[in-house]
Amino acid sequence: MDQRPKRDKQDDLQFNIRLFNLDNTQQVAEIKGHNDPSYSISFSPDNKSLFNLDNTHASSSISFSPDNKSIAIGGSDGYVIINEIKKS
Predict the structure, then answer these.
(1) Using CB atoms within 10 A of its CB, is residue 73 exposed (0-12), middle (13-18) or buried (19+)?
(2) I want to staple 17 with a disulfide (CB 3.0 to 4.6 A). Which of 9, 31, 32, 61 is the partner?
(3) Which InterPro entries does the annotation name (predicted)?
């Protein structure tokens, strides 16, 4: 994951999430358009979803359930919120 800030055409600071293949170090994807750095990123167990937390959340960690039906979000205040994942 590379979080070096970039400047877009309007000279706004952008934080992009880059995904790399660790076997050959090639970039395989880039998620653009974040205005804030990501503090925690988690893949779902089936590797089909990515969850991202930035500084707009008072959260410090995230984790998917093994059955991929819920996500736990741990807050910096010591609380944990568990949300059901709804597929569309």
Answers:
(1) buried
(2) 31
(3) Quinoprotein_ADH-like_sf, WD40/YVTN_repeat-like_dom_sf, WD40_rpt
Which pLDDT score is estimated for 27? 86
d(CA 50, CA 70): 13
DSSP for 37-54 reads -EEEEEE-TTSS-EEEEE
Q: Are residues 49 and 83 in the same domain?
A: yes
CA distance 46 to 57: 25
Tell me, what amino acid is at 78?
G
Q: How many domains does the chain have?
A: 2
Average pLDDT score, the chain: 76
Q: Which domain range does residue 78 map to?
A: 36-88
pLDDT in tens, 31-57: 777 677 777 778 888 877 777 776 665
